Task: structure prediction
Amino acid sequence: MLILALDTADARGSLAVLRDDAVLATLRHDTGEDYSSWLLPAANKLAAEAGIGMADVDLYAVSAGPGSFTGLRVGLTAVKAWSEIHQRPIAAVSRLEAIATHVAEAEAWVAAFFDAHRKQIFGGLYQRGRGGLELAGEEMVIRPEGFLAWVRERTQGAKVSWASLDPQAVLGEPAWSEFAAKGCVIAEVTPELAPAIGRLGRRMAQENRLTDALRLDANYVRRSDAELFWKGPAAPKPEAAYGTHSK
Result:
């Protein structure tokens, strides 16, 4: 299976071409150029480097969130167009799960997070199962101390493996000392997540969990600034202390 994988969830994005799980070529978004002007030329450059044409791709694997509203829309719009043109399926992959797959420890629980700005993080807690990582609860946007409290409560004191693009977002929290006392460390993950997204996309294809251009949607977790401006703040909910989840 030939896979084109994309991550445009924040400025640290990347592209990759994989044949099954083997990476043929990667390209990192390491400039200040907007994705709207960078993505299509970069994809063509990557395809040429891998020696393929866009029509050769069997599957598009794309980070569907959480992350930047603008970045996600650009990536998903491009994938929708390619899917329509070439009649290929799409794997909508969680960026947090892609981060979590970088943990090598054998702990039953894996917590993944990255900076969401506004003194918040995007976070998700996963439990290892026979089929891989399974999301516990929902992905969330939340203050670091709230995420630590939620993980502690959900895992009931068990040791947790941690992975992040931004470990410093949690390391300074007083509540982290409790996890550190149990020997927990936070693995700092490379921001080049497209290869992991491609591998997760392949697994989703094997499990028949794919989508198409019409059904593909982003998981923003947090409402966009535009929605906040036009609709006003959301009404408080009982679970607000642990963050919110929306599409």
In short: The chain has two domains: 2-94+192-216, 96-188. Residues 69 and 220 are 7 Å apart (CA to CA).
